[in-house]
Design a protein that fits this description.
Layout lengths: L2 H40 L4 H42 L1
Helix pairs in contact: 1-2
Length: 89
C-alpha cells in the first residue's frame, strides 16, 4: 500500500467528518452564544436556560441537515469502496 493512498484516504475521511458534523455544531454554538448573552444581560444564572435550547437546536439541525450529512458520508464510503482494488493491490 502506497503512503500517498493512505494520506489521501485520511484527508478524505477528515473532510467527511468535518462536513458531516459542522451543521449541528454550528447551530449549537450559535444558540449557546445567544443564550449566554441573554443570561448575561438579564443576570439569570440558570443552567437549563442554556442547555435546553442548545439540545433543541441540535436536534432540529439533525432533522434538517440529516440528508446532507448522510450524503456526505455515503460519498466518502463510495470513494473508499471504489479505491479498494487499488489499496489491496
Amino acid at each position: 500500500m502506497d503512503e500517498g493512498v493512505i494520506l489521501d484516504t485520511m484527508r478524505q475521511a477528515l473532510y467527511a467528518v468535518v462536513m458531516a458534523s459542522l451543521p449541528p455544531l454550528l447551530c449549537g454554538l450559535i444558540i449557546g452564544i445567544m443564550a449566554s448573552i441573554f443570561q448575561a444581560v438579564t443576570s439569570i444564572q440558570e443552567q437549563t436556560l442554556a442547555f435546553i435550547p442548545k439540545i433543541l437546536a441540535v436536534m432540529i439541525s439533525l432533522l434538517f441537515f440529516g440528508p446532507f450529512m448522510a450524503a456526505t458520508l455515503k460519498d466518502f464510503l463510495l470513494s473508499i469502496v471504489s479505491q479498494l482494488p487499488a489499496i489491496l493491490h
